[in-house]
Specification:
The complex is a heterodimer.
Chain A lengths: L1 H6 L1 H19 L12 E8 L3 H14 L3 E8 L1 H9 L6 E3 L3 H9 L8 E6 L1 E6 L19 E4 L4 H13 L7 E3 L2 H9 L5 E5 H7 L3 E4 L9 E7 L6 H12 L1 H9 L6
Parallel strand pairs in A: 1-2, 1-3, 6-7, 6-8
Antiparallel strand pairs in A: 3-10, 4-10, 5-8, 5-9
Helix pairs in contact in A: 2-9, 2-10, 3-9, 4-5
Chain B lengths: L1 H11 L4 H24 L5 H6 L1 H34 L5 H8 L1 H4 L2 H12 L4 H10 L7 H26 L2 H9 L4 H12 L1 H16 L3 H6 L10 H11 L1 H33 L1
Helix pairs in contact in B: 2-15, 4-9, 4-12, 7-8, 9-12, 10-11, 12-15, 14-15
The chains are: A alpha/beta, B mainly alpha.
């Protein structure tokens, strides 16, 4: 399903990339190769939840621009923000929430104002066959189940706290995982009965994991901002990547991966 | 003959330049990051941070679980070391390689491997779950197991080295005097390599105390039951880097103090005996 969406991507995205190549040429500094082609290395710092879609975007961009190499640093948004404020060299930053983007913009590292490019909501992930018979958010108060949420310090954990609070549920998790992929991993291994992760993570996990949507998720919609960075070693490629993400084809690929249009 | 030589060396105190220079660079390299932590620490908040209940909780859990992991490593690891150093069992080099696998395995992978064996869907864990309803992951026991898995090889290697360096003639003499192998091990070998075991235990304890990857994977992270100091530091880093620095310093100070104290007690006595 994911693959099919991306087969549709090239044609439309080619337009997006060539269009932005022109735009980038107008306002970006020197360093572009002649003929509008992009070259060198593009470094994208992106939230872990974007791993699958962005990897496809990167491959796509490399196919279109043979001189270009796209490399990613996927991690928790706060970790990425820390790395950036500590001087890690990057061209693009895509955060899973606005607060970590604010850390970066407060440090004045952005090249332009960040824009929201997609949204993500929480979903309950259960192992195949749902051994704990989980039906909704209320099951997270059941001490007999083995349950995972994200730690409150990371975005998916903060979102989990919000939905629990909004629903008035006294959650009884057995573990507060360090990031959303770790929480999902426990579901994939069948070691927990349920975990609170993003809809996109359920989508990406394939058949071993089933997702249960719940209405309280609307209380914590994660908005994903993206921006190019002031110190970007490859500003033109950075802009091309952001444009690809925001193009119709890019948006469609994101929706197919479980994200929502902003 | 060796004794006066040693004394002379100590009195001279001179270190040859080819040793001094790399040693100095090495020390600077090892100590500078620590200095960085000290310099960046928000000293004014230190008291308030220390008083936070979850810090004490994580610290206590760390110390207890690292100590239990060290005890488990001693009970299981010293016999392994003896088998590797003294027995004539075939395939010892293979055994040694297998036992030290956790040294090269990324700890996170070690955590996943523990799941596959001891998790509730694991080979042993599933049987345990079905017969008793008990599951190991996400418990303090899981913390101890993860730390033991990662830290025991350090002890095994140290003790094996000590056994190999120990003079086997004392053991031979004990045997000719009629002691069986178990008595020889207990009365001769153990006292002989005690400093090596102590050094191995310290190394093992330190490794267990700093363990992160296998613990957070296999035991998860929950304050009070499985959140050790390294996990607390990592998570604090996600939202509050200054708190992470403070927690790191607390862990460092406590572990250094413990190690220095133990060193004086164990190796001080051993040194005096030498």
């Amino acid at each position: 399903m994911k693959t099919r969406a991306l087969l549709a991507l090239p044609a439309a995205a080619l337009l997006a990339v060539s269009a932005c190549g022109g735009a980038a040429g107008n306002d970006a500094a020197a360093g572009t190769t002649e003929g509008g082609g992009l070259s060198g290395t593009l470094t994208v710092f992106a939230a872990a939840s974007l791993t699958d879609v962005f990897t496809q975007f990167g491959k796509h961009l490399e196919d279109q621009q043979p001189g270009l190499h796209v490399q990613f640093n996927f991690a928790g948004s706060s970790q990425l923000a820390t790395q950036l404020t500590q001087g890690a060299p990057a061209d693009v930053f895509a955060s899973a929430n606005e607060s970590q983007m604010k850390v970066v913009t407060d440090a004045g590292l952005q090249a332009g104002d960040p824009t929201i490019f997609t949204e993500n909501v929480l979903e309950i992930a259960v192992p195949k066959g749902n051994p704990g018979h989980v039906t909704g958010l209320r099951d997270f108060a059941n001490p007999d189940l083995t349950l995972a949420v994200c730690a409150p310090q990371v975005p998916c954990g903060a979102a989990a706290q919000q939905v629990f609070q909004a629903a008035g549920i006294d959650a009884r998790p057995d573990t507060q995982e360090e990031d959303v992929k770790a929480a999902l991993n426990k579901v994939q291994l069948g070691e927990v009965d349920a975990a609170l992760v993003y809809a996109t993570d359920v989508q990406a996990a394939g058949d071993a994991v089933a997702g249960i949507a719940f209405p309280e998720a609307e209380q914590a919609v994660n908005k994903y901002p993206i921006c190019t960075l002031e110190a970007a070693p490859n500003p033109d490629a950075a802009q091309a990547f952001v444009d690809l993400v925001r193009s119709d084809a890019g948006q469609k690929a994101l929706v197919d991966a479980g994200f929502r249009a902003p | 003959m060796t004794k006066p030589e040693r004394h002379r060396r100590v009195r001279d105190g001179g270190v040859p330049l080819p040793l001094l220079l790399p040693a100095a660079i090495g020390v600077v390299f090892l100590v500078l990051p620590l200095l960085g932590l000290v310099l960046r620490a928000p000293w004014s908040e230190l008291g308030a941070r220390l008083a936070a209940p979850e810090v004490g909780q994580a610290l206590r859990l760390s110390l207890v679980s690292a100590t239990l992991a060290t005890v488990a490593s001693l009970v299981l690891g010293v016999p392994i070391a003896w088998v590797l150093a003294r027995s004539r069992i075939r395939g010892r080099s293979v055994l040694r390689a297998l036992v030290t696998v956790p040294l090269v395995l990324p700890p996170v992978v070690g955590g996943v491997a523990l799941f596959l064996v001891l998790g509730r869907r694991g080979v042993v864990g599933q049987w345990l779950f079905e017969t008793t309803g008990f599951t190991i992951p996400f418990t303090t026991l899981a913390v101890v197991l993860a730390e033991t898995f990662v830290a025991m090889p350090f002890l095994v290697i140290s003790v094996e080295g000590a056994l190999r360096a120990a003079d086997a003639r004392f053991e031979d003499a004990a045997a000719t005097l009629g002691a069986d192998r178990w008595t020889t091990f207990r009365r001769v070998t153990l006292p002989l390599v005690a400093p090596g075991i102590a050094a191995g235990a310290v190394l093992c304890w330190a490794r267990a105390l700093g363990e992160f990857g296998a613990t957070i994977t296999f035991a998860g992270n929950f304050p009070g039951t499985t959140q050790t100091m390294p996990l607390a530091v990592y998570l604090a880093l996600q939202s509050d880097p200054e708190a992470a620095i403070v927690l790191s310093l607390i862990l460092l100070v406590v572990s250094l103090a413990t190690l220095l104290l133990l060193r004086d007690r164990w190796l001080g006595r051993a040194g005096a005996a030498a």
